Automatic annotation (TrEMBL):
The protein's name in its UniProt record: Osmotically inducible protein C
One Pfam family in the UniProt entry: OsmC
InterPro entries assigned: KH_dom-like_a/b, OsmC/Ohr_fam, OsmC/Ohrsf
Amino acid sequence: MQATVKWIDGVMFVGESGSGHAVVMDGPADHGGRNMGIRPMEMILLGVGGCSSFDVVHILKKGRHDITDCVAQVTAERVDAVPSVFSKIHLHFVVSGRNLAASAVERAVNLSAEKYCSATIMLSKTVEITHDFEIIEVK
C-alpha cells in the first residue's frame, strides 16, 4: 500500500492513494490554511469509521441479516499538548434494518473492534477506543 502527499500552497496538500483517489487537506486560517479541505487528523477518524463500518456491514450481510444502513458517528478527544494526539475515540454505530437482533449487531461491532479493523486495533495500542450501537427498525 502506498500514498503520495503533495504540497500545494500554505498548509494545503493533496493526498493521492495508491488506488488513484485524491483528497484535499488544509488547515485553519490561524495555522496558515484557507479551510479548503479536511484536516489530517480528521482523515484518521474517517479511516477508523470507514474501516469499522466496512467490517460491521460485511459481517451482518455475511450473516444474512437484513441491514439497510449503517452510520458510524465518530467522536474523539485530543490531549492539550504538542503533539495533540488522540486520547479517546468513540464509535457509535447506527444500524438500520429489518428484524435485526441486538446480539448480531453487538457481535459484528465487537468482531470489528477486536479482530478485523486494522485501524482501530492499531490505534488502540495508544488510544482508548470505545464502541456502542443502536438499531433502527425499518418497515
